[in-house]
Amino acid sequence: MAEHPAYPVGLRLTGRRVVVLGGGQVAQRRLPALVAAGADVLLVSPQATPSVEAMADAGEITWLRRPYQEGDLADAWYALIATSDAEANTRASAEAERHRVWCVRSDDADQATAWTPATGHSEGVTVAVLTTDARGRDPRHTAAIRDAVVEGLRDGTLVAPHHRTRTPGVALVGGGPGDPDLITVRGRRLLGEADVVITDHLGPRDLLAELSPNVEVIDAAKLPYGRFMAQEAINDALIEYARQGKSVVRLKGGDPFVYGRGMEEVQALAEAGIPCTVVPGISSSISVPGAAGIPVTHRGIAHEFTVVSGHIAPDDERSLVDWPSLAKLTGTLVILMGVGTIGKVAETLIAHGKSPDAPVALIQEGTTAGQRRVDATLATVGETVRSEDVKPPAVIVIGEVVNVGPKTAAPRP
Ligand SMILES: C[S@@+](CC[C@H](N)C(=O)[O-])C[C@H]1O[C@@H](n2cnc3c(N)ncnc32)[C@H](O)[C@@H]1O
């Protein structure tokens, strides 16, 4: 029998008798799917596990509390033989053979006339993986293939191009801090479904390499914007591609609403009547310190953290940040876009009462292969940025949390 591969088929069991012999772990694992398929399940077994018993109590299956007897399979369309009595299993499978009832045997796949595939479900599809040879059966291998396929369908890394579900309009997707594994499952799936991806220079650039060649990838920084502002050119491009009926993903670094101008794009799309989905992302403000071993809060050390943009220096009249008040906070300060201004920021914080010895860490290109951490104090950070040649993108953390973790960052998984 094992010389030929099994013939795969889907059984439509609604209302049809399925006989299960044995109420142990095998039955416990298989019964829910049989019940979900609408089968009329008869369990024959002197004992059952508590969850099998609960299914009988709930009326989902009929339970005959006795050992297998000749004739039990008479009305069955399909049988699952899984008792702990090898002799009873052999008699039952002989009966199944005589009555031409397909039967699975948990104790001897070679003697069975049917095998149960490793199954999983995703978006209206059942994935079933069968081994081709009973002797070489490796249930972990088939389960691993099933997991890989189902996971791939769920997270969008596996796309069936002719049958994909398309999300109309624009999806504004937070791509996370840079490591391609740190985008959300939903974000990754939408990327896999996109016709056009408009991207920034930050975020998970490695993911773009995985996109199929027919996906148009547009670097937002390179959009021609002539008389217009760059942001208006991006808004126009989003609207134009969506009006062409394309699935558009606007991929941003971190979270779209943390210094990401995400809401400006949402507003422009709403004005143009284009549907827009927002997919949150992991912001660099928390994840980049974490990747370098720095928690933004820690019991007994910091009960608050404040995220600030450093893109405008404190002495610039356009600054909206109340630096004197920030100097008085006892918690953690996280500064984004602050590499160029950190010297002046540090002077201002010290001038308004922050300790010159306050620990500072700068984490450049966090969560990527180029991640680098440089430590300093508030008094030395301006000079350290120059001497260590720290470059954007970097997250700057000020506060005692800098010193609570081990100094050696955990390796990237
Ligand atoms: C325009 S803001 C966008 C922030 C983004 N929306 C977020 O939630 O992470 C860009 C700044 O985020 C920080 N940043 C983003 N990704 C980073 C990374 N992988 N490593 C270090 N800093 C990063 C830097 O401070 C950079 O200048």
UniProtKB/TrEMBL annotation:
Limits of the Tetrapyrrole methylase domain: 170-381
Family: Belongs to the precorrin methyltransferase family.
Listed GO MF terms: uroporphyrin-III C-methyltransferase activity
Keywords: Cobalamin biosynthesis, Lyase, Methyltransferase, Multifunctional enzyme, NAD, Oxidoreductase, Porphyrin biosynthesis, S-adenosyl-L-methionine, Transferase
One record GO biological process: methylation
Class in the EC hierarchy, top level: transferase
Name under which the protein is recorded: Uroporphyrinogen-III C-methyltransferase
Catalytic activity: precorrin-2 + NAD(+) = sirohydrochlorin + NADH + 2 H(+)
Keyword Ligase in record: no
Top-rank taxon: Bacteria
Alphabetical list of Pfam families matching this protein: NAD_binding_7, TP_methylase
Pathway, per record: Porphyrin-containing compound metabolism; siroheme biosynthesis; sirohydrochlorin from precorrin-2: step 1/1
The encoding gene: cobA
EC number: 2.1.1.107
Stored NCBIfam families: cobA_cysG_Cterm, cysG_Nterm, PRK06136.1
SUPFAM superfamilies, sorted: NAD(P)-binding Rossmann-fold domains (SSF51735), Tetrapyrrole methylase (SSF53790)
Source organism of this protein record: Streptomyces dubilierae
